[in-house]
Specification:
This protein has 429 residues and is of the alpha/beta class. It contains 13 helices and 19 strands. It binds S-adenosyl-L-homocysteine, iron/sulfur cluster and FE3-S4 cluster. Iron/sulfur cluster binds next to α6.
Length: 429
């Protein structure tokens, strides 16, 4: 039996694309292996969001070269955002790569398997939203479901509109059918995926789609990523409030607390627009957890702009953030802007952001000690066999002692006994 190995970098979209490539390979009679040395085909599903992500991939790719020399029959494929962005340049950089498979052409993986020459597939795929690929689901409890592909926002720092193409929504009927099929196989939670789920459009808009998914029997929880602040409507806020399965958590990237920087980023909202949306969210859904993304050291960011971000973190009190140093991406507007910020300044600002947020995250988690929460059991945490791991509806990781009558997929009520920055400890009530 032929074997394959996939290394995935980047976001949930990529993780799910890897599930699709694994699905195709399983259907072709291949078997997955954790060890690349045993594999007949090695796939790198890549990310180009920041330079670091790109470097990580190229250094791993370099290590494969000697393997290919030893066993020339092994096929090396590069998929994902770097594949889409660099196209045939990957062959120039690494001639031992056999195929470059762009983000809209995963279905061509099957055709490539039997080819002996270079394969390149990076064209736009107009039928992307109708392509029905077999999917290998790595979790029996939680499933990702694409509701849309691509992005039209062109935030000035971001490569995604170039690597994922223009926005395209799937029909609501094909989404609902997929969710029903997942429910029939025991999936309890669906995570709806899109670069900007709020701009989902078919015959339904996003809140209307949530209403339909909420009706699917067997599904207990609905999550979605990512939301863009400019498209967060009152209708969506009410959907989160009223629909029982929609979890009380939203990831709403702010990026900067300075309205001047937000304008340069082409985010289409001011800090005050953002703040008023947060206030509305919290008024309607008081316990909602809000997480965010922050970029430190965007071009022309002054010390005052940075302090506005710090002030914003203190004012909003996010449950958690992902923060990054601004990274120049080829082809983006921000990479050409004047006033690029020095590396040391970026590092220091990032450090300050992380310090402030760590303190806030810990303080917010501590408030949960002594409260009752509902968690969905996902399985064992790493290296622990006597414990179970689950998430609260607000997406906080929670560890509880194992009990014989509990199993993956159960929704249980627990008492939070201790809160740390990154996880909660609980006991069954
Ligand atoms: N579609 C999502 C996520 C995009 S990528 C959204 O719009 O929210 C995830 C995060 O990476 C972004 O929110 C941003 O904070 C960060 N990011 C994107 N490009 C970046 C760059 N060039 N440098 C640093 N961080 C970046
Ligand atoms: Fe990138 Fe902006 Fe699109 Fe998000 S909304 S993927 S940050 S361009
Ligand atoms: Fe995701 Fe990275 Fe592409 S974050 S969309 S895999 S550039």
């Amino acid at each position: 039996m032929k074997k394959y190995h996939i290394t995935t970098f980047g976001c949930q979209m990529n993780f799910h694309d890897s599930e699709k490539m694994a699905g195709i390979l399983d259907a072709e009679g291949y078997q997955e292996t954790a060890n690349p040395i045993d594999a007949d085909i090695i796939i790198f599903n890549t990310c180009s969001i920041r330079q670091k992500a790109e470097q990580k991939f190229f250094s791993q790719l370099g290590k494969i070269k000697s393997l290919k020399k030893k066993r020339p029959s092994i096929k090396i494929a590069v998929a994902g955002c770097i594949a889409q962005h660099y196209g045939s340049k990957i062959f120039e950089k690494a001639p031992y790569v056999d195929f470059v498979l762009g983000t809209q052409n995963l279905h061509l993986l099957k055709d490539f398997l039997n080819k002996d020459f270079y394969g390149l597939a990076i064209d736009e795929n107009p039928s992307l939203t109708d392509t029905d690929l077999p999917i290998k689901r790595y979790s029996p409890i939680i499933a990702y479901v694409n509701i849309m592909y691509g992005c039209n926002n062109f935030c000035s720092y971001c490569v995604v509109p170039y690597t994922r193409g223009p926005e395209k929504s799937r029909t609501h009927t094909s989404i609902i059918n997929e969710v029903k099929e997942l429910a029939s196989r025991g999936i309890k939670e669906v995570i709806l995926l899109g670069q900007n789920v709020n701009s989902y459009r078919s015959e339904l808009n996003f809140p209307q789609l949530l209403v339909k998914i909420n009706e699917v029997k067997g599904i207990e929880r609905i999550r979605f990523i990512t939301s863009h602040p400019k498209d967060l409507s009152d209708e969506l806020i009410l959907a989160i409030k009223d629909l029982d399965k929609v979890c009380e958590h939203i990831h709403l990237p702010l990026q900067s607390g300075s309205s001047k920087i937000l304008r340069l980023m082409n985010r289409e909202y001011t800090y005050y627009d953002y703040l008023s949306k947060i206030q509305k969210l919290r008024k309607e859904v008081p316990d909602i957890a809000i997480t965010s993304d922050i970029i430190a050291g965007f071009p022309q960011e002054t010390e005052e702009d940075h302090l506005q971000t710090i002030r914003a973190l203190k004012e909003i009190e996010f449950d958690g953030i992902f923060s990054f140093k601004f990274s120049k991406r080829e082809g983006t507007v921000a990479s050409q802007m004047s006033g690029q910020v020095d590396e040391e300044v970026k590092s220091r600002r990032l450090y300050e952001i992380i310090e402030i947020q760590n303190e806030i995250t810990e303080r917010k988690n501590k408030k949960l000690e002594g409260t009752y929460q509902e968690i969905l059991l996902e399985g064992l945490p790493k290296k622990e066999i006597e414990k179970f791991m689950g998430r609260t509806r607000t997406n906080k990781i929670c560890i509880i002692p194992k009990k014989d009558d509990l199993k993956e997929g159960d929704v249980v009520k627990i008492l939070i006994t201790k809160a740390n920055r990154h996880s909660l400890l609980g006991s069954i009530v």
